[in-house]
Amino acid sequence: DADVTQTPRNRITKTGKRIMLECSQTKGHDRMYWYRQDPGLGLRLIYYSFDVKDINKGEISDGYSVSRQAQAKFSLSLESAIPNQTALYFCATSDRFWGQAGSEQFFGPGTRLTVL
Amino acid sequence: GENVEQHPSTLSVQEGDSAVIKCTYSDSASNYFPWYKQELGKGPQLIIDIRSNVGEKKDQRIAVTLNKTAKHFSLHITETQPEDSAVYFCAASPRPTKLSFGAGTTVTVRA
């Protein structure tokens, strides 16, 4: 079974709708992240959480919110979806800060979101 | 904040040839530089990383070099194979809570 899972894998929605993307992990990592991938822009960090009681904004958090329900679960919400939020969304986990030995991020398979 | 530029955006190489991807960064405090490979339909996966106290690191057919003075680092893939076809991302970390990615390079290995 995959260590980091995302649901749904694909979603088409309409402008103004609320949508939630879910991420679960079985790696036992404290740190979880949500990224957005757009062609030509690479991966941009939306939100991150270093433990259950910790939530931090990334570089592009406007229009998004998150919830860390448990160590293993981190959800991303779009309160009122708009077309320019059409993108590929990735959840990731790690067990230490970047730069420390072994600081690899483990990515889920992604959720392709289309907002019409 | 840290700005990472990656070139080229696309790269096509003949099987068996070498591929080189270059990245530059802006924040001189950056001290950790990972490279991720993303295969079609999958999430990125770490393939190699380097820290600022090392100038070069090699793992089988892939190697990374770092020039801190010029603030650039490069990924070298030798003897390319079809399974090397993917999108490659460089990244730089100026502090433990920050990691900035480049825009990605799509590598195609021609048989």
State the main characteristics:
heterodimer, A: 116 residues, mainly beta, seven-stranded mixed β-sheet, four-stranded antiparallel β-sheet, globular, B: 111 residues, six-stranded mixed β-sheet, five-stranded antiparallel β-sheet, 59% strand
Estimated share of beta-strand residues of chain B: over 45%
Tell me the number of helical segments of chain B per DSSP (H or I, 4 or more residues long): 0
Q: How much helicity do the residues of chain A have?
A: under 10%
Residue windows where pLDDT falls under 50 for at least 5 positions of chain A: none
Strand content of chain A: over 45%
Overall geometric form of chain A: globular
Return the string of H and E elements of chain A: EEEEEEEEEEE
Number of helices of chain A: 0
**Structural class by helix and strand composition of chain B:** mainly beta
Which residues of chain B sit in consecutive blocks of at least 5 with pLDDT less than 50? Answer: none
The backbone outline of chain B, from C-alpha atoms, is globular
Please give the radius of gyration of chain A in angstroms.
Answer: 13 Å
Biggest β-sheet of chain A: count, sense, barrel?
A: 7 strands, mixed
Radius of gyration from the alpha-carbon trace of chain B, in angstroms: 13 Å
